[in-house]
């Protein structure tokens, strides 16, 4: 399949993941050259809903559960965005490659029982790969609830995030880890959450290859949306 250089001419939904190359990696300050990351699409930093379809999808997908419970319209858009993004992910990741991985969702910022606890990442993986022999494991969790970076002007410092992240050895009880650990998140911004999760995974599973898979990456306002091929 050919990949067009002009993203505006690329048909939607995206047909493959885009591997983060050196130029794009520089937009995410925590990432190192050795990090293997890929994403489905880009959203425009600071663009709001006027930034295009990706910005609107992301806003709806990340709608807080407490808001969705109060507003039937927002709940509908959240479900719609979840279904759309799951379909994109299924189309972009071949079955054999999805089944080769142990998928580890980046843990939500809120703990179970919090009104805004949102397991949207686990749910979208199971929806995207329904019918596959998929291995989704909550190997990581946060020891306490923290403000979500996307919902606060004051972002959680890296060390504070690392200190609240825990590895759950009980999640290993369902069987051996597969050939690749795919850390999965909805958005790649600075790369802070990915690197902290990667560190905790490697402490517990030092020989497991770890990659990052993201629904979207934050692109600087100057960058055009880009789609391409990975893996």
Q: Key terms for this structure?
A:
231 residues, 8 helices, 8 strands, globular, disordered C terminus
Furnish the topology, listing elements before pairings.
Elements: E1 18-19, H1 22-25, E2 37-44, H2 53-61, H3 65-70, H4 72-92, H5 95-100, E3 101-105, H6 120-128, E4 135-136, E5 140-142, H7 158-164, E6 165-167, E7 180-188, H8 192-204, E8 210-219
Parallel strand pairs: 2-8, 3-4, 3-7, 7-8
Antiparallel strand pairs: 1-2, 5-6
Helix pairs in contact: 2-4, 4-6
Give the gist of this structure.
The protein is α/β, with parallel strands linked by helices and 231 residues long.
Task: Describe what you observe in this structure.
- This protein has helices spanning 22-25, 53-61, 65-70, 72-92, 95-100, 120-128, 158-164, 192-204; strands at 18-19, 37-44, 101-105, 135-136, 140-142, 165-167, 180-188, 210-219.
- It has 231 residues and is α/β, with parallel strands linked by helices.
- It has one domain (11-219).
- Strands 1-2-8-7-3-4 form a six-stranded mixed β-sheet.
- α2 packs across α4 (72-92) and α4 (72-92) crosses α6.
- Residues 1-11 and 223-231 have low confidence and may be disordered.
Amount of helix: 25-40%
Give the N-terminus to C-terminus distance in angstroms. 14 Å
- Strand segment tally: 8
Individual helix count: 8
Overall number of domains: 1
Order of strands side by side in the largest beta sheet?
1-2-8-7-3-4
Average pLDDT rating = 87
Order of helices and strands: EHEHHHHEHEEHEEHE
Q: Outline, from the CA principal axes?
A: globular
Q: Detail the poorly predicted runs.
A: 1-11, 223-231
Briefly note the structural class of the backbone.
alpha/beta
Radius of gyration, taken over Cα atoms and rounded to an integer in Å: 17 Å
Main β-sheet, in a few words?
Answer: 6 strands, mixed
């Amino acid at each position: 399949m050919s990949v067009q250089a002009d993203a505006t001419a690329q048909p939607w939904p995206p047909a493959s993941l885009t591997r983060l190359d050196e130029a794009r990696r520089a937009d995410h300050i925590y990432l190192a050259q050795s990090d293997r990351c890929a994403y489905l699409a880009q959203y425009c930093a600071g663009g709001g809903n006027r930034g295009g379809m990706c910005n609107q999808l992301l806003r709806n997908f990340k709608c807080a559960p407490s808001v969705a419970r109060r507003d039937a319209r927002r709940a509908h858009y959240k479900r719609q965005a979840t279904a759309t993004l799951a379909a994109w992910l299924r189309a972009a990741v071949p079955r054999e490659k999805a089944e080769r991985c142990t998928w580890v969702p980046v843990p939500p910022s809120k703990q179970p029982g919090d009104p805004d606890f949102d397991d949207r990442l686990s749910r979208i993986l199971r929806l995207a790969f329904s019918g596959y022999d998929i291995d989704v494991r909550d190997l990581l969790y946060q020891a306490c609830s923290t403000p979500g970076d996307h919902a606060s002007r004051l972002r959680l410092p890296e060390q504070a995030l690392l200190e609240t992240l825990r590895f759950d050895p009980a999640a290993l009880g369902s069987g051996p880890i597969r050939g690749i650990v795919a850390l999965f998140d909805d958005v790649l911004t600075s790369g802070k959450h990915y690197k902290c999760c990667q560190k905790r995974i490697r402490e517990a599973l030092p020989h497991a290859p770890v990659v990052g898979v993201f629904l979207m990456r934050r692109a600087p306002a100057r960058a055009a949306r880009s789609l391409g091929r990975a893996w």
